[in-house]
Amino acid sequence: MKRIIENLFYTETGKDTIIVFLATGINIFIAGLFFVFAPRILGPSDFGIFATIVATGILATNIANFGIDSGILRFVSGKERNNPYLALAFRAYLVLGLLTAVIGFLISPLLANLLEYSQIVPLLRIAFISVIFILFANFYIAALQARKEFIKASLVNISSNLSKLVMLAIAAVFFSIGLYSITIIFFFTTIISVIVGKVLLPFELKSKSIKNPLVIFNYNLWIALSLIIASIPLDNYFLLKSAGAVQTGLYAAPFKILTFVYQFAGNFTRVLAPRFTSFDTKEKARKFAFKSFGIVVIMSAFLIVLAIVGVPAIALIFGGSFSGSAGLFRILTLGFIFFFAGTVPSSIILYYFGKSQVTFFITALRLAVFAALLYFLVPKMQAVGAAVSYSIAEGVTFLFLAIYSLWRLK
Question: pTM score, two decimals?
Fold first, then answer.
């Protein structure tokens, strides 16, 4: 046991993981407070709409991102101020962000009509316009993590969530706050992260040319497609259209609390990425993978405990109007355990084998399974059906990722 702990926490990877997890924990706590106060302020119906807007903004960001942040992790290292890949990624984000904002602004009425909620058009437009700021924040976070400056990268994240919380408190005290104002606060405080990122990561846009500048996009094509289809908020869309805003809100409240797992998983993957990229034998990759899975076991144990003790606290956290969210929390926790467990095999596939197309096909399978389950279960079980669908889809995804990575590592 002592040796296992030493392997987990006293190696370079373990130390980086501890830094990432502690900083992410602080960030999650601050972000979590926002998503505790927002449901209480809005109630289930408006919070269901707000959660759908947020999910749509994340989808738009991933479309514009085109997986470039993963390319930064692969091609950027060291302290070079004029790294050509940084300059290329920054320019690409600028163009893609502006393009996504314009297209999103124009199609917002169409999306609102498809969901049969025409009143959300201005809210959708806020989400689409803010994409460029979210992209630039992601740029600085990924670049700092690629340089293994994990504390600085975490500060960029923390600055955004802290400013959200401060602005929410100011608005609640001095103004009448509602769905529209909370949406503005959530999306546009990301500008603070961009400013902090610029201070922590000075770099030059004028840099030496790249022999094949398309390499960063060629590498990211499958990753980009995977991120896009994985972030399609089918659960929110199915619920909002078929079950209504209240059921969407009851589902979204515990889901948002559990999204801290996404942040831990993303940052953990960025710790794993440079290690798997550097290995030249299967034996090294296999040993490191099994050692890294110790973190997965710890996180899974924590989530199991959270599922047990957290259910009674849901109504207390969100208020009596969200009492129906308690059972959903436990169901969703299982899905998030599967999701976090998938970080190790997906990192092997992406960064050791470089088979991003495999990740895409497995992600596409997840989307198909998820859509089919939602189609059959949401009309009958409403929010419970969405939670069950999510957990089953994540379980299927983890199973295929694990089978493929173990097969290739033999």
Answer: 0.82
